[in-house]
Amino acid sequence: MTYRLLITGSRAWTDEQRIRDAIAANVRLYGPGNLVIVHGACPSGADAMADRIASAWGGGLTVERHPADWDHCVPACPPGHRRRKPSGDVDHPGLLDTYCPGAGPRRNAHMVGLGADVCLAFLVRGSRGATHTANAAKRAGILTYRYEVEA
Length: 151
What we know:
Layout: E1 3-9, H1 16-30, E2 35-39, H2 45-57, E3 62-65, E4 83-84, E5 98-99, H3 103-114, E6 118-124, H4 128-139, E7 143-149
Parallel strand pairs: 1-2, 1-6, 2-3, 6-7
Antiparallel strand pairs: 4-5
């Protein structure tokens, strides 16, 4: 049986050991060959830490990455909604100078819609994207654990 562990977290999250401990607890319960780590592939913060930890684990642990498509809009996007990327922006990679602010919430909803057995949310207070994912997971009936710290 495959056990899906959705990990979401703030870009500003810094406690890699807490993520490692949470993944380790699930590996002990379900075995690495039965565990899929699902995350949003943000290049910084909790997603990046979860990816490093899970990718190095071995033993059949699977990593499922869901990067947001910041460069493209969908028909429901309102005209003029795109935002200019800050200089040196690594959180919204791509070739364009602007990004679609709806890409993150769309990606989050997609990950939740794929289903998970548990969602682990590593939140720095005020983090909108990770909080959005955690709230969506809870509304979808996914058991959600929040690890929160002050900014």
